[in-house]
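An example makes the point: we let one protein speak, the chain in one-letter code, the fold tokenised, and here it is:
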Amino acid sequence: MEKDDLVRLETVMSNEENLKGDHMNYERVDKELAKYTNSERIIVSEADDKRLKKMIDRRVLVIMILTYFLQALDKGTMSFTSIMGIRDDLNLVGDKVCSCPS
């Protein structure tokens, strides 16, 4: 996010009278986030970079596998129930979702 965007966001979220020049109200910013958003450049070593990428990849991969598994399970279950006659049992026609009598 560019500095101008941050200033506009802070202007919208803060009282106009509290902003003077290039001031940003850091009380409204998460303390952990504020450590990494200052003007100082942070250098990450090659080893830390690889470690962080592996850690993120493992976490994202677990979520993706779980999501794909649940999606496949849902798709399989819905096709099986369709074959077994759920549409007739619930009187489903077209986009009708409710099984209430018409």
